[in-house]
Amino acid sequence: MGKDLERILVSEEELRSKIKDIAGRIDEDYAGKDLLLVGVLKGAVMVMADLARALHCPVQMDWMAVSSYGAGTKSSGVVRTLKDLDTDIAGRHVLVVEDIVDSGLTLSWLIRNLKSRGPASVEIFAMLRKPDALKTPIDVKYVGFDIPNEFVIGYGLDYAERYRNLPFIGTLAPHVYGGK
Ligand code: PRP
Fold it and tell me: Taking burial as the number of CB atoms within 10 A of a residue's CB, which of 4, 140, 152, 155 is the most buried?
């Protein structure tokens, strides 16, 4: 994997410590409330698993699968639902858990979709955000790290379905995806 990786952007230790901080804030913000975590497959699997175990408040977990990237490296803006929630979220406090907000197109669609179901609240936790790539304003309540507009892999993030299992977040060498 070494030569496909350009550099490590966020280390395992930094991820662990950020999860702990954000879990503490979520525990406080949702104290006494019934919280439903909604993970967005497949990228959010790692962050969801780590966040859920770092929380002290009781939560439920559900999953949605949507697709926006295909096998390329740029957001298409076309969002398809591949798997819907099993849970009725009417009246529930929902926290969407994401690995990355890139253009914001996926989440902006998803938030509109979830709000139309009448939840008590909907907020977002995204481990990564690329401020320079945003194409639509999006209010992310909990952000792990703001990162440059580069192609990132690891900790759930893939390039053509590979590299998701890296325990850190790295940048992909341009030669892998046909860049310079
Ligand atoms: C990634 C990521 C977000 C979305 C962000 O998912 O998990 O859902 O792209 O991009 P955007 O802000 O530009 O819309 P992807 O569609 O690659 O699916 P995956 O989670 O299965 O890898």
Answer: 155
* Greatest Cα pair distance in the chain: 52
The DSSP line for 43-111 is TTHHHHHHHHHH--S-EEEEEEEEES-TTSSS--S--EEEE--SS--TT-EEEEEEEEESSSHHHHHHH
* Catalytic residue ranges: 102
Instruction: Give this prediction's pTM.
Output: 0.93
Summarize pLDDT for 8-63 with one digit per residue, the tens.
Answer: 999 999 999 999 999 999 999 999 999 999 999 999 999 999 999 999 999 999 99
CA of 89 relative to ligand 1 center, distance in Å: 22
Q: pLDDT tens-digit profile of 129-152?
A: 999 999 999 999 999 999 999 999
Asked if pLDDT for residue 73 goes beyond 90, the answer is no
- Strand, helix or coil for residue 2: helix
Q: Which residues surround ligand 1 with Cβ inside 6 Å?
A: 40-43, 67-69, 75, 98-107, 158
Best residue among 68, 105, 153 to mutate for probing ligand 1, ranked by most atoms within 8 Å of CB? 68
